[in-house]
Amino acid sequence: MIISIAQIVTVLVALLHCYFLWLEMFAWTTKARKVFRNFPQDLFVPTKSMAANQGLYNGFLAAGLFWSLLISSPIWSSNVALFFLVCVLVAGIYGGVTVSKKIFLIQGAPALVGILLWLSVKFI
């Protein structure tokens, strides 16, 4: 039962990063203006390529998380999931400290829940 919950949280974190990819790569000058209201409106167009680069990294995180669920070995599946969830957690902590605490809540906290669930599977 715990492993399926860990997998569900991993999928949710991956989907969240797919959303970040879309927002930063394809909707930076449209939808992102509404999502990032505190970001200066006059900077969206000049930072479009920078945001797209960030989106690409979020896509890599999502791909790694999805990949972890396709690995047939339970040990390797959990190890890969943990690696990518830790990457997400570190990014969430960094964003929370340097930009806004909201970043930690949206990005880091779900990753932390996933990490704890995967660790509980490994040590039961």
Walk me through the topology:
Blueprint: H1 2-26, H2 31-35, H3 48-70, H4 74-98, H5 101-122
Helix pairs in contact: 1-3, 1-5, 3-4, 4-5
Describe the structure.
The chain has helices at 2-26, 31-35, 48-70, 74-98, 101-122. With 124 residues, the chain is mainly alpha-helical. The chain has one domain (2-122). Helix 1 (2-26) runs antiparallel to helix 3. The radius of gyration is 15 Å and the shape is elongated. InterPro entries: DUF1304 (IPR009732). This is DUF1304 domain-containing protein. The chain crosses the membrane at residues 56-73, 80-97, 103-121.
Order of helices and strands: HHHHH
Shape: elongated
User: How large is the radius of gyration?
Assistant: 15 Å
Low-confidence stretches: none
In total, how many domains does the architecture comprise?
1
Oligomer: single chain
Distance between the first and last residues' Cα: 12 Å
Characterize the biggest β-sheet: none
Residues in helices, as a percent range: over 70%
Percentage of residues in strands = under 5%
Number of strands: 0
Q: State the secondary-structure class.
A: mainly alpha
Number of helices, counting only DSSP H or I runs of 4 residues or more: 5
Can you give the mean pLDDT?
Answer: 95
Organism: Maribacter cobaltidurans
Keywords: Membrane, Transmembrane, Transmembrane helix
Transmembrane segments: 56-73, 80-97, 103-121
Protein name: DUF1304 domain-containing protein
In short:
The protein has 124 residues and is mainly α. The protein has helices at 2-26, 31-35, 48-70, 74-98, 101-122.
Please tag this protein with its features.
membrane, transmembrane helix, mainly alpha, transmembrane, DUF1304 domain-containing protein, 0% strand, DUF1304, 5 helices
